[in-house]
């Protein structure tokens, strides 16, 4: 269904949108979800509720962004 | 344009969607930073001034990162990384949604994914656990507040996805309007119940200026609205343009 060729359309009609098969999306989705969550964790929570790195530099450096993006900061 | 009526649309690739998502996320972050500097930072400053005036150990701790760096490089880094991450995840959500939401095309799909993403990731958590400026929130509850905040994002995502799935199932039988209305009502009711049964550990210090709190929260909401609106509208426009080429 997703592979069906699109016939020439009349004026005013556009071809139905062709979806990307789920199996083509899943590997990207897993990668982006993992990397995205790691980034969001470091921006939003590291050295706050939990600390992977010692010290408070990450917390202090991202302080304003953390508050303004809505994460609990301290 | 009208000349290439017979041309089939170029297939969309995950590569182009992801690159576009991350770049548009960066653009959205840049606009959110403008909102942060105009509307947000003055309130962060007010809250810090309150904190220093009301804390007995104010000023004793050495600054690890200066205020100037927090407001500039720190804020740019935090919002920039957040924008790129959200932009990439937006692209994935768009890839799942495109061609699977009735006859919606690229622009409308992107706008809808942007709206639903904003509701799930910002709207639901914000209504229950709104952003807090410095001095608001008890430091001893940071662990539970962080867990509750991320939990509320998960609830927002789960209930939005559930509403979309229910809506798609109902649409053929009830028509699009009725299906959207019913699933939206269901979404609101489920979240209203969850808001009632989740704890509220926020601690607002006595005499904290209500205006600072309100203005800070509106600025925070505004930053997120600008980021998600950029994703929904600019991503859709660029996608539509690439399909029509």
What does this entry look like structurally?
The complex is a heterodimer of chains A (74) and B (245). With 74 residues, chain A is mostly helical. Chain A has a domain at 44-74. In chain A, 47% of the residues lie in helices and 0% in strands. Chain A has helices at residues 22-44, 57-61, 63-69. By secondary structure, chain B is mostly helical. Chain B has a domain at 12-53 and 67-139 and 206-244. In chain B, helix 3 (106-128) runs antiparallel to helix 6 (210-244). The longest helix of chain B has 41 residues, at 14-54. Residues 1-6 of chain B have low confidence and may be disordered. Chains A and B meet through helix 1, helix 2 and helix 3 of A and helix 1, helix 2, helix 3, helix 4 and helix 6 of B.
Number of strands of chain B: 0
Number of helices of chain B: 6
The average pLDDT score of chain B comes to: 91
**Number of helical stretches of at least 4 residues of chain A:** 3
Q: Which structural class is indicated by helix and strand composition of chain B?
A: mainly alpha
Counting copies of identical and different chains, the oligomeric state is: heterodimer
| Rg calc of chain A | 22 Å
Strand content of chain A: under 5%
Largest interface: A-B, 50 and 67 residues
Distance between the termini of chain A: 51 Å
**What is the radius of gyration of chain B computed over CA atoms, rounded to a whole number of angstroms?**
21 Å
Question: What does the main sheet of chain B amount to?
Answer: none
